[in-house]
Design goal:
With 298 residues, the chain is α+β, with helices and mostly antiparallel strands. It has a single domain (28-257), classed as Nucleoside Triphosphate Pyrophosphohydrolase, CATH 3.90.79.10. Helices cover 29% and strands 24% of the residues. The chain is built from 9 helices and 14 strands. Strands 1, 2, 3, 4, 8, 9, 10 and 11 form an 8-stranded mixed sheet that branches. Helix 3 crosses helix 4 and helix 7 (217-225) crosses helix 8. Keywords: Hydrolase, Magnesium, Manganese, Metal-binding. GO terms for molecular function: hydrolase activity, acting on acid anhydrides, in phosphorus-containing anhydrides; metal ion binding. Residues 27-237 form the Nudix hydrolase domain. Its cofactor is Mn(2+); Mg(2+).
């Protein structure tokens, strides 16, 4: 197994407690994350696109020090009322995301767009169904971004005040991963892919990150394999899945055929070992002595 996998030292004890019925699984919180891509330049067709990643601060309780994409939890207010919407209808998104209602689909897509703006300063919205905002680095935009982060402003209010519609057609649903049942902080996370809109640029504004980087997916995966970058299994898996595509547009087009079946880690006892697996992703299988500790990146 790669030396770059994020693996908390408390997992073995929590797995044992769950197996013994001594631990109640926490209900996962809905979340969304966006793999923001841009072409590398004139040689994009040869080099492929690069993806925007951030390194979570080591002080973060969940996945501290790990590289990830912009993202975060759903704001309950995103379910409250319908917003200005462009692109595939909400019924399409509910089916694609595997959720029961259109309001839940809206909330997940809103979380993806809102978190990308909050953590990278990039906004997938425009004044019409065929346009997207340009430069979002002005003081007025920054004030709105800070208000969104603080939850002083809902995303629906933000869009309404600026006369914007959410451009859901600029997003493609790519994968869905659910935090294991033995984790104290659990998320049901939808992964999206999007291309950086023309005229916009990312900014290092996330309070949860201490570093950002644009990097080719294959290079990021290689550095994970070498133990140079710490990552969680869904991050590595999506990087590997993005690597074959030559342009951001090509990757976005391929989103429609990605498998959205939720991936949930499983743990079982085999003799004197605990075996931790992610179904369909054998590279992350972890063997832990049942009577001993474990932990660290492994």
């Amino acid at each position: 197994m790669s030396q770059g996998q994020w693996y908390p030292p408390e997992w073995p004890d929590r797995i044992r407690a769950l197996a013994a019925g001594e631990l109640t699984a926490v209900t996962p919180r809905r979340a969304a994350t966006v793999m923001l891509l841009r072409d590398a330049g004139p040689q994009a067709a040869t080099l492929g696109p690069v993806v925007h990643m951030l390194r979570r601060r080591t002080s973060m309780a969940f996945a501290g020090g790990a590289y990830a994409y912009p993202g975060g939890g759903v704001d309950p207010r995103d379910d409250d009322r319908l917003i200005g919407w462009a692109g595939p209808p909400l019924e399409h998104w509910a089916d694609r995301l595997g959720v029961a209602t259109v309001t839940e689909a809206q909330a997940v897509v809103c979380a993806a767009v809102r978190e990308t703006f909050e953590e990278a300063g990039v906004l997938l919205a425009g004044p019409t169904a065929t346009t997207v905002v340009g430069d979002t680095t002005g003081d007025d935009w920054e004030a709105d971004r800070v208000a969104l982060v603080a939850r002083d402003l809902s995303f629906a209010e933000f869009l309404d005040r600026r006369g914007l519609v959410l451009r859901s057609d600029l997003l493609g649903a790519w994968a869905r991963w659910i935090t294991p049942e033995f984790e104290p902080r659990r998320y049901d996370t939808w992964f999206f892919v999007a291309a950086l809109p023309e005229g916009q640029r990312t900014r290092d504004v996330s309070t949860e990150a201490d570093r950002t980087v644009w990097i080719a997916p294959a290079e990021a995966a290689r550095r994970y394999d070498a133990g140079e970058l710490l990552m969680m299994p869904p991050t590595v898996t999506t990087l590997r899945a993005l690597a074959p595509y030559r342009t951001a547009a090509e990757a976005l087009e391929a989103a429609d055929v990605q498998d959205m079946t939720p991936v949930l880690a499983q743990a079982r006892l085999e003799g004197d070992e605990l075996v931790l697996t992610w179904p369909g992703h054998d590279e992350f299988t972890k063997h832990v002595p049942a009577a001993g500790g474990g932990g660290g990146a492994a």
